[in-house]
Amino acid sequence: MTNTQIPLAEYLRPTKIEEVIGQEQLLAQDKPLRLAIDSGKLPSMILWGPPGVGKTTLAHVISKTCDFNFISQSAVLSGVKEIRESIEIAKLNLEHHQKRTILFVDEVHRFNKSQQDAFLPHIESGLITFIGATTENPSFEVNKALLSRCQVYTLKALDDEALKKIIDRVITKQSNLNIEEIAKETLLLFSSGDARRLINLLEMAIDQITLQKESVITNEIIKKIISEKTRHFDKSGDQFYDQISALHKSVRGSDPNAALYWLFKMLDGGADPLYLARRIVRIAIEDIGIADPRAQTMALEAYQIYERLGFPEGELALSNAVIYLAMAPKSNSAYVAYNDVKSFIKDQPHTDVPLHLRNAPTQLMSDLNYGKDYRYAHNEPYAYAAGEKYFPDDVEPVKFYNPTDRGLEKKISDKLDFLKSLDEEYNKRKK
C-alpha cells in the first residue's frame, strides 16, 4: 500500500513529460508545448482547462525537465505581498545559484488587474517564467497586458482511455490490490474527465479496503463512497456556458433528444433551473420568434410553473417547452430586425415625426397642420392605407424585417407581398 502520510495524488505525480497522462495535443513529439520544453526556450504561459486535467502537475514537470526553481502560489490565498516575496526569492536564486525560476500561479483569474500587472516587469526582464493556471477563458479573465506576454495552451478533459491508465497506474503501485472491471466503469462515470476526482475516489476506496483487510476494490465499495452526486458541473465557469450553448444549439438545430440531454445534464449537475428557464425563453424569442409565437408563451409559462411549483412539476414543464421549441418552425428574422434597427437608429441624426402622423389634441396643433391628411387605415380597403408613408420625411423606408417562409411567417410574408402590390397599384394611379 502507499505511504499513508503522502496523499495519493502527490504520490502519483509524474516527474517526467513521458509520465504525463493525456494532453497529447500539447505534449506528443512535435507538438507546440513539447517543442518549447525540448528547445529550452520556455515562454511564459497560461494553462487553460477544466479542473483535474493536470495543470499543476504539468507546471511541476516542466520545472523539473527544464531544471528551473519552482515557486507555487494560489491566487485564492495570495496577494501583492506574496508576489513580492516570490520575486525576491527568484532574484536570490538567480544571483546565488544561477538558476531561473518558474513562478506558478494557480487560479490566476482570481487575481485583480493590479495583482496581475505586478508580474509584468519581471516577465519582461526574464527574471521569471510565468505559468498561470485557470479554469476560466483567459480572453475574459486575464488582463490583456499579461495575456499578451503569455502563450495560451488549452488542456482537455481526460478521456476514458486516459483515466483507465491512471487507474492501472494506481493499482500497479499497490501490493496485492485488484479492482473489478465494473468498478472501473463506475469510477469513469463519476469522474467526468477529472483525474483529481478519480484519484480521490480511489484513495478513499483503498483506505476503506485497507481497514477491512480486503484486497479487491468492488463496485459496491465505489458506490458506497459515492454516497451523493459527484458528477462534475462547474456552475460559473466555461463548462457551464459550453453546456448552455449546446442546449441552445440543439434546440436551434431541431434535435429534441439532444436538447433534452443537455437540459437534464445541467439539472442533474446542479444548475439553477430558473436560469435555464430564462435561457429557454430567450431561445424562443431569438430562434423561433414570430414563426410560432406560441413557443414564447410556452417557454414563459414553463418558467412560471417552475417558479410556482418547483420540482418535479417544474422540470416536466421545462422539458415540455424544450421539446416544443426544438420542433417549432425556426426563424431569427425578428431577432435580426431588432439588431438591425438598433444599429440603424444609433447612426441616425435626429428626425422629426411627419406632420400627418402627429396628434392634434389642441386647436393650435390643428392650426399647425398636425394630423392633416392622415388616412385612417380602418376606413381604407383591406384596412390598409396603400401608398402611405410612416418613416420620417428625410428617411427613405428601410426593410428591417424579412420574414421566412416557415410557420406563421409564411402567412406574414404572403400578406406583406399583398400589401406591397396594393402600394404599387396606388402609386400607379397616383401618377
- The total of beta strands comes to 7
- Give the DSSP E fraction (strand runs of 2 or more residues): 5-15%
Main sheet properties: 5 strands, parallel
Radius of gyration: 32 Å
Write a structural description.
The strands form 2 sheets. A 5-stranded parallel beta sheet has the order 2-3-4-1-5, sandwiched between helices. A two-stranded parallel ribbon has the order 6-7. It has 431 residues and is an alpha/beta fold. β2 (69-74), α5 and β3 form a beta-alpha-beta unit. It contains 21 helices and 7 strands. The model has no long low-confidence stretch (mean pLDDT 88). The protein is elongated. α10 (160-173) runs parallel beside α12 (195-211) and α14 (238-252) packs antiparallel against α15. Helices cover 55% and strands 7% of the residues.
Quick gist of this model?
Helix content is 55%, strand content 7%.
Which properties best describe this structure?
five-stranded parallel sheet; two-stranded parallel ribbon; 21 helices; alpha/beta; 431 residues; elongated; single chain
Blueprint (SSEs and pairs):
Elements: H1 8-12, H2 24-27, H3 32-39, E1 45-48, H4 55-66, E2 69-74, H5 80-97, E3 101-106, H6 113-117, H7 120-125, E4 128-134, H8 138-141, H9 144-148, E5 151-154, H10 160-173, E6 178-179, H11 181-191, H12 195-211, E7 216-217, H13 219-225, H14 238-252, H15 256-269, H16 273-288, H17 293-309, H18 313-327, H19 333-346, H20 363-367, H21 408-430
Parallel strand pairs: 1-4, 1-5, 2-3, 3-4, 6-7
